Amino acid sequence: MLFYSIKIPQQKHFKHLNLLEYMEYNKERGEIYLDKELNNLDKFVLDFVSLLDDYVIVSGYVSILTGRSRATEDIDLLIPKMSFEGFQELWKRIENNGFECINTSDIEEAFDMLSDHAIRFARKGKGVPNMEFKIISNEVHEYSFNNKIKLHIRDRHFYISPLEMQIAYKLYLGSDKDLEDAKHLYELFKEKLDRNKLKSLVDNFNASENLELISKNE
């Protein structure tokens, strides 16, 4: 069994963001296990995704959760296309558990908006943090959803896109923040990544130069 334990050093200047003690990665099963003190952002994510059936998280939050020291106000989440009836049921479940859509309070308007772009949910009365809620709409989304991995955090869990896609997409976006997110994940998991898969995804995004940039010290 391909099972790895990684000791994560504390970063004193960011204790409010980064209290990760250790991490284990079971490559064979595609599961990550974390032990860390849950902060408000972690609790927000875990509480929200517990209301969903099918989803995948695809944002920089994964880098933060695994030790990257930066703040974020939103988390990107993808869900399969659903009927209005299905959305209506989910909307009620979300509202009944202390969350609200910050784009609109009208369910029909929210459903119409979702067909074109993301809508956002936050705890009632608060704008941040918020969940950027998107319908799967392209091949990148489909790949992330169909190949998602399970991330355990203490006695709870949620699903994230595969590490190779997380890195490749961040390299494609190419901002300083995104490159640092990609570098963090690459350095942390480089002994466990599927290098052929990563290269293929990076090539598809035409981001080979950025991969060379974050791996140049190897």
Describe the structure in your own words.
There is one protein chain. The protein is of the alpha+beta class. The chain folds into 2 domains: 30-141 and 151-161, Beta Polymerase, domain 2, CATH 3.30.460; 162-210, no CATH class. Helix content is 39%, strand content 23%. The chain contains 9 helices and 10 strands. The chain has helices at residues 40-49, 61-65, 84-96, 107-114, 139-146, 163-173, 176-189, 195-204, 208-214; strands at 3-7, 20-26, 31-36, 56-57, 74-79, 99-101, 119-123, 130-135, 149-153, 156-160. The strands form 2 sheets. Strands 1-2-3-9-10 form a 5-stranded mixed beta sheet, with no helix packed on it. Strands 4-5-8-7-6 form a 5-stranded mixed beta sheet, with helices on both faces. Strand 7 (119-123) and strand 8 form a beta hairpin. Helix 6 (163-173) runs antiparallel to helix 7 and helix 6 runs parallel beside helix 8 (195-204). It is globular and about 50 Å long. The two termini are 26 Å apart. Residues 1-19 have low confidence and may be disordered.
Percentage of residues in strands: 15-25%
Instruction: Give me the count of strands.
Output: 10
- How many separate domains make up the residues? 2
Total helices: the number is 9
Shape: globular
User: Class by helix and strand content?
Assistant: alpha+beta
CATH class of the largest domain: Alpha Beta
| Average pLDDT figure | 89
Low-confidence stretches: 1-19
Which percent range fits the helix content? 25-40%
Distance, first to last CA: 26 Å
- The appropriate CATH architecture of the largest domain is 2-Layer Sandwich
Order of helices and strands: EEEHEHEHEHEEHEEHHHH
Radius of gyration using CA atoms only: 17 Å
Q: What would the CATH topology of the largest domain be?
A: Beta Polymerase, domain 2
Biggest sheet strand order reads 1-2-3-9-10
Largest sheet: 5 strands, mixed
